[in-house]
């Protein structure tokens, strides 16, 4: 494993921790303090400002005009459709169904990678993904409560669109990461993404009662903005410079594992043999995924000019 690959895996691991903890931290916001579209507006606006602020502190990188259509499509899939369909879908269906549908993301990423980037689907990689899927599903079902939604069919369909959009985003953003640095890519993705969600969320955002926020609510919204939006997106995108989209997608399985661990150590949930087996399956999948072909960047060879970002002022 090269140094770049090791850093990329560390970034994905950190991103998985951030997303996994979010199940516990962010749930206190709804519905007492914020509604879904309000969260989408705030996290989109603040993440966009953070990425542009960090970009201003770094050496400017010129982006080719021809790349902005792809960046716009990535923002539509990875920010707008991903977040809007997730929160609306979750309001109709159950968290258990949502998590089960999300467990199919690595398979979708692998399929899109094969279709778009001609990435080989090996037996070893498929075995690793299936092992992780089984472990994730076991954890999800272990934590399931008897909760249901108002319209399970519609909700599940929206969640399916949500995770399909994000899986395709991981594949389409890969060429941009081979050409530019992560901050440059993310500042454009979140600028376009925020502009897309404004018509759907601005009215709700104007009704946020900030005065009613408790210290815990302020911590939660800060974590959602900085942790699961700014840092998690940045880390995931950074990892794609050294790893394939399929490997990045696999780390979604970490989320139920992290959520379960937090529940055990901080919220008095019981550590059972079943949970231990589920965790071992997920880590076994990581081992299989990370052997041999998993470290290929996919998508063919890059030209020398595409390996390093251009150090010229923004257009």
Present the secondary structure layout.
Layout: H1 3-25, H2 36-57, H3 68-92, H4 95-102, H5 105-117, H6 123-142, H7 152-172, H8 174-179, H9 182-205, H10 215-239, H11 245-250, H12 254-266, H13 273-289, H14 304-307
Helix pairs in contact: 1-10, 1-12, 2-3, 2-9, 2-10, 3-7, 3-9, 4-7, 5-7, 6-13, 9-10
What does this molecule look like?
- This protein is mainly α and 315 residues long.
- The chain has a domain at 3-122 and 146-207 and 214-248.
- The chain has 14 helices and no strands.
- It has helices spanning 3-25, 36-57, 68-92, 95-102, 105-117, 123-142, 152-172, 174-179, 182-205, 215-239, 245-250, 254-266, 273-289, 304-307.
- It is globular and about 50 Å long.
- Residues 292-315 have low confidence and may be disordered.
């Amino acid at each position: 494993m090269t140094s770049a690959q090791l850093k990329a895996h560390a970034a994905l691991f950190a991103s998985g921790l951030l997303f996994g903890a979010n199940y516990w931290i962010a749930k206190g916001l709804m519905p007492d303090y914020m509604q879904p579209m309000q969260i989408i507006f705030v996290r989109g606006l603040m993440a966009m400002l953070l990425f542009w602020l960090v970009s201003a502190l770094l050496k400017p990188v010129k982006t080719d005009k021809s790349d902005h259509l792809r960046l716009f499509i990535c923002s539509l899939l990875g920010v707008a459709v991903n977040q809007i369909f997730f929160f609306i879908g979750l309001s109709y269906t159950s968290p258990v169904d949502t998590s089960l549908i999300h467990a199919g993301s690595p398979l979708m990423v692998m399929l899109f990678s094969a279709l778009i980037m001609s990435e080989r689907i090996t037996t070893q990689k498929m075995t690793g993904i299936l092992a992780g899927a089984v472990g994730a599903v076991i954890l999800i079902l272990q934590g399931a409560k008897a909760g249901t939604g108002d319209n399970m069919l519609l909700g599940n369909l929206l969640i399916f669109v949500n995770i399909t959009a994000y899986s395709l985003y991981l594949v389409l953003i890969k060429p941009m990461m081979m050409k530019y640095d992560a901050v440059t890519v993310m500042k454009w993705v979140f600028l376009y993404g925020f502009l897309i969600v404004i018509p759907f969320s601005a009215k709700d955002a104007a009704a946020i009662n900030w005065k009613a926020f408790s210290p815990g609510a302020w911590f939660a919204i800060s974590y959602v903005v900085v942790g699961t939006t700014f840092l998690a997106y940045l880390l995931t995108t950074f990892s794609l410079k050294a790893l394939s989209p399929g490997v990045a997608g696999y780390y979604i399985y970490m989320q139920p594992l992290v959520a379960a661990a937090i529940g055990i150590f901080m919220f008095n949930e019981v550590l059972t043999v079943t949970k231990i087996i589920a965790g071992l399956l997920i880590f076994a999948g990581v081992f299989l995924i990370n052997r041999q072909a998993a470290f290929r960047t996919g998508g063919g060879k890059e030209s020398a000019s595409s390996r390093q970002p251009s150090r010229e002022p923004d257009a």
